[in-house]
Amino acid sequence: MPDRCGRQPRPAQRRRWRVCRAVLPPRPAGGAPAAPWALLLATSPWLLSCAEQPAEPPPAVVTAEPESVCYLDDFATPVTLDASGSAPSLTLVPAEVPEEGWSLVYDWVLSGAAHVELDRDPSDVWLQITTAGDRPLHVELTVHNDVGGEATTLFTLPITLPDPPRDCSDKGCPVDFECVAVAGGQWCAPARICESDDECPACLHCEEDVQRCFPDGVGE
Questions:
Q1: Burial class of residue 178 in the structure, from the number of CB atoms within 10 Å of its CB (0-12 exposed, 13-18 middle, 19+ buried)
Q2: What is the pLDDT of residues 9-36, one digit of tens each?
Q3: Across all residues in the chain, what is the average pLDDT?
């Protein structure tokens, strides 16, 4: 039936759907070639399945023992940098590293303070160094796993500055300290006897004349 404008309605058209497959059937003799978009749709599942997935990066972890060095340590304190906390793959909970099937490669780059390498594990999972202690030591660790993933972490070995000696000739000393005469003055020192530097807190030395611990530069 014509509409108000006298136009005849168009006959209904049946929509045809073509099912595309990864393997196309051969073209019939004398048939027209398939449209380019049909070939793309038909082969897209195969293309997606063959796409290379990115390698899973391993978490890189660095620890140091001790966690800092004294200012102007002058290469006296060995420091162990340890990457054994790294793992082949990222996990949300602690997991044991498999004995077989996984391998990690460790690349260390040290900068900042002057340093000397004393020892190194054959697998490079740790190394032992000393540092001048005039500035922090910056550590860059890159870990590679055996599926092509890699991750880099940064770590800084800080410098510990001792508290300056306190003149106790007028104001006395705080609790657990006592006033000791040394180096032409009176200084607050921890109220305990020492016989060697090993018995003093970090960044202090034992002044043997008075058997007390003082910062470097006092009594030396």
A1: middle
A2: 555 544 444 444 444 445 555 555 555 5
A3: 76
C-alpha to C-alpha distance for 60 and 43, rounded to whole angstroms? 40
Residue 69 structure tokens:
């060095």
Contact 142, 62 (CB under 8 A): no
The residue extents of the domains of the chain are 63-160, 162-220
The pLDDT tens digits for 151-163 are 999 999 998 877 7
**Per-residue DSSP letter, 113:** S
CATH node for 63-160: 2.60.40
| Exposure class string for 48-57: b at 16+ Cβ within 10 A, else e | eeeeeeeeeb
Q: What is the pTM of this model?
A: 0.59
**CA quadruple 30, 31, 32, 37: dihedral sign:** negative
Residues in the chain, how many? 220
